[in-house]
Every structure is written in C-alpha cells, then in structure tokens.
Amino acid sequence: MKDYITIIGGGLAGCEAAYQIAKQNIKVKLYEMKPQKYSPAHCNENLAEIVCSNSFKSKLLTNACGLLKEELRRLDSLLIRIADETKVPAGQALAVDREVFAQKVTEEIKKNPYIEVINEEVTNIKKMLKEGIVIIATGPLTSNGLANEIQELTGQDKLYFYDAAAPILQKDSIDFKIAFYGDRYHQEKKKEESIEQWKLRLEEQEKEEQSYINLPMNQEEYEAFWKELVEAEVVTLHEFEKREIFEGCMPIEIMAKRGIDTLRFGPLKPVGFDDPRTAKRPYAIVQLRQDDKQANLYNMVGFQTNLKYGEQKRIFRKIPGLEQVEFVKYGVMHRNTYINASQLLEETYQLKAIPNLYFAGQITGVEGYVESISSGLVAGLNATCDFRKEGEGYHFSEYTVIGALAKYISTPNDKFQPMNANFGILPELEGKKIRDKKERYQRLAQRSLESLVLK
Q1: Segment 401-455, tens digit of pLDDT
Q2: How many CA atoms lie within 13 A of 103 on its CB side?
Q3: How many CB atoms lie within 10 A of CB 220?
Q4: What is the CA angle 101-290-94, rounded to 5?
Q5: Listed residue (302, 301, 305, 309) closest to 328, CA to CA
C-alpha cells in the first residue's frame, strides 16, 4: 500500500477530507481537473468553488443545518471555519463571499505540507485502488468518463437529478424607488404604530440590515409576470438526460406551471412584509440576498432556473424594480449525479464491495454544502483509521446530524433520494412529546451536542 491517501475531487467534501487526513500527518494526493477541464457550471480555478448559492443556510441551533454547522465547528472543520471567516450579512443565514471563500480554502490546502494538489482529470480509478485507499469526491457534476467508471465499480446504474442555479444581479442597477431592504417579519407595520413611526423604524433598520432586498408586486404585476414565466423558452436538455427534477432545487418556471398561486405560497410569498409605498402587504414579493462581502452583488432567492439567457433578461426585468437590472451571472441548470448509497455504502461512507474505496459529497446522496462538508469529514476520518488499520472506524451517534445523515444514506431504501439536514432524520426525543416546535428543536440540538463523541 502507498504511503498516501488519494482523493479525487477538490470541492467542499474533497477539501474537508484532505484536511482531516493531513491533520493526522498522513500524506494526501488531491486530484482536481480544473483548470485543465471545467464542468458545465464551474468557472473558477480555485478549489471549493460554490456555484448554486452563496448561502450555507441557517445559523440557528433550532435549525438542523445550523446545528450541523455547530457540530462541524466543534470537530475543527476547515470549510466551516473559513465560511465563518468569509461571511457576508444574510440575516439568520450564514452566507459567504464565494470568491474569497474559495481562495482561502485553496490557500489553506496548498500550504499544507501533507497535501499535494494534482491538477489533472482522473480516468483510471481501478489502478489507484490497487495502490491504496481512494476517496471519490467528484461531486454532482462528475465527468462522463469518470461517472461511467463509477457505474462499473458500483455495479449499478447512475442516477440523475437536476440542480438549478439562480441569477446574480448588480445592486446599483436596482430601482430603490420600489425596492427596499429588510428581513421577513421585521417589515410589517405594528397595529399601534402610525405610518410615520413605522417608516422611521424601517429607515433605522435599513441602516443596520442590508442583507436582503425586497421587490413588492401587486396582483396585476404578479399575474403578468407569472404568465410570461410559464410561456418562456427553456434550454433543451440532452436526450440522455432523464427528466427527473429534485424537489429541493425546483426551477422557478417548473414551479410556476403548477398553478398561478404556487409561487405566492413559495419563494414569492408576501408574508412578513408591508410595502413602504402603501403600508399594506403586497400581493407577492421577490427577495434578493447579498452574494458578496462588499454588498455589490445579490442573488435572486428561489429563482433557480433553466430559462434561456435571453428569456431570463427579458422576463426578470418585468419584476418591478428590476426594469434596468444588470445580470452578473445568469441562472443555469445542469446534470447532477449521485450513487444509490443506501445499497452501496456503510455509515463510514465506505463502499461495501470495495473496502478501500470511499465516497464523499453530494455524489453520496447528501444534499447541500454543509452536508457535503460533513460527509467529507466522516470519510476523511474513516480513511485515516483504515490507513492505520485502527479498529472499525469512526461512527457518530445517530442523535447528531452528522451521524443521522450517515445513517440515512447507508440505510437500505428502495426509493432512495438525496437528503439534506433536517430534524426529521433524528430519533425522536424520549418521554412525553413536546408540542412546541421551537422547544422540541432546542432539546434535539442539546441532545445532539451532548452526543457529539466518536463511537
């Protein structure tokens, strides 16, 4: 066996796995095909590039993803530490400046004396497996050649779902005669307030909170926008791509076709806002979330799309306040690949049929940035244990989100689909059922952190 562990893929999971292995003074060869070759969605030569959204979701411990981040912090996750260091204002969410984030991860990985970054595409996993331990962390955009080899190694068909990225806009091209800053529920007029008092309070809040920009719509504006959206031209998918759309990242034009009011109960819901121009709740509202540290760029929340670029420019400019908006990046939709982990993997993210092969990241069926980091940490720890031939590996308690995710993806399931962090995958609390959701989540979080030990 070689004196190093091989990792294929320099995304979130691959970089986290490399860091965890290197901490144990074990050498790592980290293969990343950029900049020699790029996937359809990537364009930055740095490691750990994030393309769909800059949000790592909630910071609250009463949110499963927020709890997962805290678990990872306590285990010295490199990626979560850097996310904290590069955060931009986003209300109760942890959002990052994606350019700075990727740059800092790349610097940390490349300066580590135990990690060698090799910029080339891997085309022969079998040869690497003969030489030692391998972690495949190629992500949901695995190249065709490598995906075919993974299919051969796992003995099962590849599965696809679709992940759509939202457009990014320039803030200075937004019309603030219509748009206004503010987070949900902080913008509603209180019953005892006069309009003057309410507007004064909004002005004070806007000075402190500029992570979200809101674009209110009346019924006529919304229905005209909806009509254009459902009739718009989308990018034609290749024949070999199955038309399976993952519900967690539904393209907005597909959502709109489910009914005229679907968007108003989804990403365009007006709950929690009053329009400063009318002091009344708007019929619908579009939210933009800060995307960079300087607050120059904002992404369209919930507007993942497969519309043609020209259609995006034409239709999204019909949203009040975006008539002259400048697009920094249009939304895209691309093929994502994941294996049937429920049949193939152990809780350690180890392939049952080939003990020296591990998987990490969204290719395993964990859905989301933080979830991918979690899988990379677990795979890295277990590959280290395997390398040193120490026991049966690292197993996290199912009371933790880390452990619950590992258990979910490795539990046999005939209808396996990708899963993100949520309290539903944790075991229920013992004793009398707690009806108050916030209290129940607090108790689950407390139990999780108390259980954060390696088994």
Answers
A1: 999 999 999 998 877 877 889 888 898 898 888 878 889 899 999 999 999 986 5
A2: 7
A3: 9
A4: 55
A5: 309
Q: Which alpha helices (H) appear in 168-212, and where do they start and end?
A: 195-208
> Tokens 């258990």 identify what position?
407
Note the pLDDT tens digit of each residue in 177-211. Answer: 999 888 775 666 666 667 777 677 666 666 556 67
For the record, the structure tokens of 13 come out as 């999971």
Longest Cα separation, the chain: 75
Rounded to the nearest 10 degrees, the angle between the axes of helix 369-387 and helix 12-22 is 30
Residue carrying the six token digits 């005209």: 224
Residue indicated by tokens 């393309």: 51
- Rounded CA-CA distance 253/228 in Å is 10
Report the alpha-carbon distance of residue 14 to residue 29 in Å, rounded.
11
Token output for 139: 């992500």
Q: What is the DSSP letter of 134?
A: E
Q: Which amino acid does the sequence have at 349? A: Y
Find out whether 120 and 36 touch, Cβ atoms under 8 Å: yes
Which helix (H) or strand (E) segment is 145 a member of? helix 144-154
Q: Is the pTM above the cut of 0.85?
A: no
CA separation for the pair 423, 71 (Å, rounded): 14
Distance of CA 322 to the CA centre of its chain: 26
Four-CA torsion 342, 347, 352, 355, nearest 10 degrees: 150
Count how many residues are written for the chain.
Answer: 455
Contacts of 444 (CB under 8 A, 6+ apart): 67, 423, 426, 429
> What distance in Å separates the CA atoms of residue 267 and residue 264, rounded to the nearest whole number?
7
Q: Are strands 4-8 and 134-136 parallel, antiparallel or unpaired?
A: parallel
Q: In sequence order, which residues have a C-beta less than 8 Å from that of residue 308 and are 6 or more positions away?
A: 232, 233, 234, 235
Percentage of the chain exceeding pLDDT 90: 58
Could you give phi then psi for residue 69, rounded to 5 degrees?
Answer: -60, -40
Q: What interhelical angle do 78-85 and 64-74 show, nearest 10?
A: 110
> Residue 355: which residues within 8 A CB-CB, separation 6 or more?
386
- Considering just the CA atoms, what is the radius of gyration of the chain in Å? 23
CA 143 from centre of chain: 20
Beta-carbon neighbour count of residue 156 at 10 Å? 13
Strand spans (E) along 154-294: 159-165, 168-170, 180-181, 212-217, 284-290
Ranges in the chain, pLDDT < 50: 239-242
